[in-house]
Write a structure and sequence with these properties.
about 575 residues; 5-stranded mixed sheet; SBP_5; 4-stranded antiparallel sheet; Peptide/nickel transport system substrate-binding protein; 19 helices
């Protein structure tokens, strides 16, 4: 198996070398951009895109009504819309769409495409998508019609509709974050005529119930995408995706790089080798590799100290699915754990106190960054810097484990399997650090670390089976609620997946979402942070400044153009890059 893997990487490197050679021969507009990463691509359908690996491709193939203005994450500007008006005291938005825009198929963009896009997102609204926050704005609930029977076709069709050539949104309540929600690439406008022709939802009332909650990750639009973006799909297989500049792109800033290849290369060493040879322009590597193997090398440029707008932590599933293979014997007998092992807050507290944040910062982040007390970026409003973060304390961890399960945890011991994304060195290092510290407390404690594919870890079907995984969040829109509800609300994104319910926190979140009083919101978020810390719902990873390497032949990358809300590879869209 090892030889087979190495052969695949060798073939991939050869392919990329040939691409680089062709690029050098062609030059200019025929240049090729090569990106290498360890994660696979879940989907190319914006209606279910909800991970950064897929998003970095989809955001270059599709476009939204509005987008962020330069590097400013708080201001939006027109993209496929040219203007909009608010009405009914902030509960109605009317968008005028841009003329002369074509999809990759050659079809013209019309209001019907935008109407179809948003209705499709509200109808499907699967657990693998970000349509829950669109549904909250337009229907007053994060659920789809299967989970909330109050949702009807009449509600959906009146929430988003075309009035002639004008797209009209009608909201049940004021939502100050609505415009920034529309900038999320999951709301990218799809080619409705093309979608219907290839077997996607036909957009009618007669069939909408058949598509409620339907899994569209691997659907026809994933296989045959058609957007208005600057790049269109050429080919896709298990290890690579290739795209080319769309000749019919409407924008004034035509793409200068002709071809883009995104390659899945699991082995970090192979990515580094390709990058140093000039066969890859961007690669996924941790900070330690950048400083020890890349910084200062010929042809290498590094963009560092970037604003961090992500939050990450290890989640602890309070109801692990039986038979998942992650709980061993399924009993607290030293050979496994019961499915509700993490239901006991003292188990969670023991794990939290066993994670050595200072050592992680020193070893992985090279001393940069600081401990966090909440799964909210400290660069966002609502973060209470006066609240002390959880600390690494073996004695505190020991005491918590001795109390857990009425003393059975300490007396009997446990064996548990935890997962990380294969190829993600920083996640693996964090888990190894946690494993070492926990097993040092009691010889009866055993933590096994398992590397898994990204698509397997993130799938809603597989999440209940995991005992512990890294949960990270890049913001969908620039408001603290996007993090707080996501991680801590019992109706949010992560809390239901780890079976965490806290009525007190739910009440505070509801109040914070219903007021425009900034001071009161900050007060509520501080209360949520303190309670969540006391209950140890997550092992919170420290903040760290963003950093990434790129070949110095790439132009258009800078701190001034970097926007952390978009373009996960370079901080700016591919169309804004050029290559010498």
């Amino acid at each position: 198996m090892k030889n087979k893997t190495l052969s695949a990487v060798a073939l991939a490197t050869l392919t990329l070398t040939l691409a680089a050679c062709n690029n050098k021969q062609a030059g200019g507009a025929d240049s090729t951009l090569v990106i290498q990463q360890s994660a696979d691509i879940l989907t190319l359908d914006p209606g279910t895109t909800y991970d950064t690996s897929s998003g970095q491709i989809v955001e270059n193939m599709y476009e939204t009504l509005v987008g962020y203005k330069g590097s400013d994450i708080t201001k939006v500007e027109p993209v496929l819309a040219t203007e909009w008006q608010e009405g009914q005291d902030g509960k109605e938005y009317r968008f005028t769409l841009r003329d002369g825009v074509k999809f990759h198929t050659g079809n013209d963009l019309t209001c019907a495409d935008a109407e179809y896009t948003f209705r499709r997102n509200l109808v499907t609204n699967t657990a693998d998508s970000g349509n829950w926050f669109l549904s909250e704005s337009l229907l007053g609930t994060a659920s789809n019609a299967k989970d909330d029977t109050s949702i009807t076709w009449a509600k959906i069709s009146s929430a988003v509709r075309c009035d002639g050539d004008t797209l009209v949104f009608t909201l049940p309540a004021v939502d100050p974050a609505f415009l920034t929600k529309l900038a999320y690439i999951g709301q990218g406008i799809v080619d409705s005529k093309h979608a219907k022709e290839i077997g996607e939802w036909d957009g009618t009332e007669a069939t909408w119930n058949d598509w409620v909650g339907k899994d569209i990750l691997g659907g026809e639009l994933n296989k045959q995408p058609s957007g208005t973006g600057a790049y269109k799909l050429v080919n896709r297989d298990a290890n690579a995706i290739s795209l080319t500049a769309f000749d019919g792109y409407w924008g004034d800033d035509k793409p200068q790089i002709k071809n883009v290849i995104l390659q899945k290369v699991p082995e970090e060493a192979a990515r580094v080798q390709a990058f140093l040879k000039g066969d890859a322009d961007f690669i996924e590597v941790p900070r330690a590799i950048i400083s020890t193997q890349l910084q200062g090398k010929p042809g290498v440029a590094v963009l560092d100290d970037l604003t961090n707008t992500t939050a990450a932590g290890f989640s602890m599933n309070q109801k692990i699915e039986a038979g998942s293979g992650m709980i061993g014997s399924g009993k607290l007998d030293g050979k496994g754990v019961p499915t509700d092992f993490f239901k006991d807050a003292d188990v969670r507290r023991g794990f939290v106190a066993s994670f050595d944040v200072p050592t992680y910062i020193e070893q992985v982040q090279e001393g940069k960054g600081a401990a966090r007390n909440f799964l909210l970026p400290d660069s966002f409003p609502g973060y209470d810097s006066n609240l002390e973060a959880a600390t690494f304390d073996p004695e505190l961890a020991k005491a918590a484990f001795q109390r857990a399960w009425g003393g059975q945890v300490w007396q009997n011991g446990f064996t548990i399997n935890v997962s990380y994304r294969a190829g993600a060195q920083t996640q693996q290092t964090a888990m190894e650090l946690l494993k070492k510290n926990i097993e040092a407390l009691n010889p009866k404690f055993k933590v096994n670390i398992v590397g898994k594919e990204w698509s397997e870890l993130i799938s809603s079907k597989n999440v209940p089976k995991e005992a512990m995984v890294m949960t990270a969040w890049a913001p969908d829109y620039a408001d603290p609620d996007n993090f707080v509800s996501t991680f801590y609300s019992s109706t949010g994104y992560y809390a239901p997946r780890i079976n965490a319910q806290d009525a007190q926190i739910d009440g505070w979140i509801k109040e914070a979402r219903g007021t425009t009083d900034t001071a009161r919101r900050d007060e509520l978020y501080a209360q949520i942070a303190k309670r969540a810390l006391d209950e140890a719902y997550y092992i919170i990873m420290p903040a760290q400044p963003g950093v990434f390497p790129y070949r110095d032949t790439i132009k258009g990358v800078s701190a001034d153009t970097f926007n952390p809300m978009i373009a996960f590879t370079s901080g700016t869209y591919w169309k804004n890059l050029s290559k010498e």
